[in-house]
Amino acid sequence: MRKVLVTGFEPFGGERVNPSWEVVKKLQDVQLSGVSLAVRQLPCVFGKAISALNLAIDEVDPLMVICVGQAGGRVDFSIERVAINIDDARIADNDGQQPVDQPIVAEGPAAYFAQLPIKALVNGLREAGIPASVSQTAGTYVCNHVMYGLLHRMARGDSNVMKGGFIHVPYLPEQAALHPGSASMSEHTLLEALELTIAIALHTEKDLSVAEGATH
């Protein structure tokens, strides 16, 4: 049976949990839409995160890779459109690194677009009653770093990965309780959203042509 690799991150920035991993770890060995799911936790560390992702790709040999990360302050399930070739860290990573204006890949392209049907995903999630949107920025921290690393490897063509991208998720309720005014999403809803995302992405070859842009 072919496999899909799903990754989440360890906690960072003083948080005790990371919602991406709390949800992703529940998918280990789950069979869904004709594939078996494999999961890995990535370190929230520049450089090491891409190395861990590449090792997981080599071990699992997936046809699709979905990377998931925390975006405290986001209000919905955010499907990322683009990764840019820059590390510019507002806070240090879990190894104390804080790169500023450093390329992820020297001489690499300025950006890569997600290799997922991002608008079909958002439409399907909304139809299921799950708040979702296309995000125009994955930031410049380790999440963007990993997304760019994934898409750069796909562009090189040295794996069997055909589809791949990144999703940002809000805080869990117990995290939001410590950040008054922040939105949250339950583990149950996040898990439902992620399973639906995988199913739609696997079976959608042509994305929807609908407006999901931003004016600012």
From TrEMBL:
It catalyses: Release of an N-terminal pyroglutamyl group from a polypeptide, the second amino acid generally not being Pro. One of its GO terms (cellular component) is cytosol. Its EC number is 3.4.19.3. GO terms for biological process: proteolysis. Keywords: Cytoplasm, Hydrolase, Protease, Thiol protease. PROSITE patterns: PYRASE_CYS. SUPFAM superfamilies: Pyrrolidone carboxyl peptidase (pyroglutamate aminopeptidase). The active site is at E80, C143, H168. Transmembrane segments: none annotated. InterPro entries: Peptidase_C15, Peptidase_C15-like, Peptidase_C15-like_sf, PGP-I_bact-type, PGPEP1_Cys_AS. It is an enzyme of class 3 (hydrolase). Pfam families: Peptidase_C15. Its main location: cytoplasm. It is found in: Cytoplasm. Belongs to the peptidase C15 family. Removes 5-oxoproline from various penultimate amino acid residues except L-proline. NCBIfam families: PRK13197.1, pyro_pdase. Homotetramer. This is Pyrrolidone-carboxylate peptidase. The lineage of its organism: Bacteria, Pseudomonadati, Pseudomonadota, Gammaproteobacteria, Enterobacterales.
